[in-house]
Structure formats: structure tokens, C-alpha cells
Design a protein that fits this description.
Elements lengths: L1 E6 L2 E3 L5 E9 L3 E10 L6 E7 L4 E3 L7 E6 L4 E6 L8 E11 L2 E6 L3 E5 L2
Parallel strand pairs: 2-11
Antiparallel strand pairs: 1-3, 3-8, 4-5, 4-9, 5-6, 7-8, 9-10, 9-11
């Protein structure tokens, strides 16, 4: 069993910052990538940022220059520093990880953490 636990969401004013963190634990033989997705009310879940264990990073166009993803492969953690937050960033943010647990690679998801940007 693999668990992803997120932390760091909350309410912030426009222009403010938040830092999300996610830790993976459980029966993990290998981990090749971690990332953050978000889902706003009435919208589909979308990629925010993704990082591989080799350091390759992808950002959604809407967050480039404002968000920074980082990871610690040894600790199996991924973080998302979010600056210059906008009301449009309001969503539930989900951590995910591509994990080798047993003999198969699978994608696991956290339970989500709410980020609300509002004055």
C-alpha cells in the first residue's frame, strides 16, 4: 500500500504565497516522478507541475514564473511553492506519484488540499 499525504493549503489573499508539501510512504520499490494537479469547481483536473527523478520539470503555462516545484528523492517528498497567487488558482490541489510497488508501475493520488485565493 502506498500513501500520499499533502499539507499546506489554506486561504490567502491575491498576490500572496503558499507552499504545498506531499510525502509518499508505504511499499515503494522505486519512484520515477511526482507532481501536482488541481481541480476547480466545475472543471476538469489539470496538471500544475511535474518533476521526474532525473530533474525534468514541466509547468502549466498559467503558473510558469509563479510556481516552483521541487522534490527530494531520498525523502520521497515533493513541494510546490506558489507565489503571486491569483483568484483563478483557487482549487483543490492533488499530489501524485508514479510508483513501482511490487512488479508494476502505478500512479497514486493524495486526498487533496484546498487552496483558496480571495480578498
Amino acid at each position: 500500500q502506498v500513501q500520499l499525504v499533502e499539507s499546506g493549503g489554506g486561504l490567502v489573499q491575491p498576490g500572496g504565497s503558499l507552499r504545498l508539501s506531499c510525502a509518499a510512504s508505504g511499499s515503494i520499490f522505486n519512484l520515477r516522478a511526482m507532481g501536482w494537479y488541481r481541480q476547480a469547481p466545475g472543471k476538469q483536473r489539470e496538471l500544475v507541475a511535474h518533476i521526474t527523478n532525473g530533474g525534468s520539470i514541466t509547468y502549466a503555462y498559467s503558473v510558469k514564473g509563479r510556481f516552483t516545484i521541487s522534490s527530494d528523492n531520498a525523502k520521497r517528498t515533493v513541494s510546490l511553492q506558489m507565489n503571486s497567487l491569483e483568484p483563478e488558482d483557487t482549487a483543490v490541489y492533488y499530489c501524485n506519484a508514479d510508483v513501482l510497488a511490487g512488479t508494476n508501475w502505478r500512479t497514486y493520488w493524495g486526498q487533496g488540499t484546498q487552496v483558496t485565493v480571495s480578498s
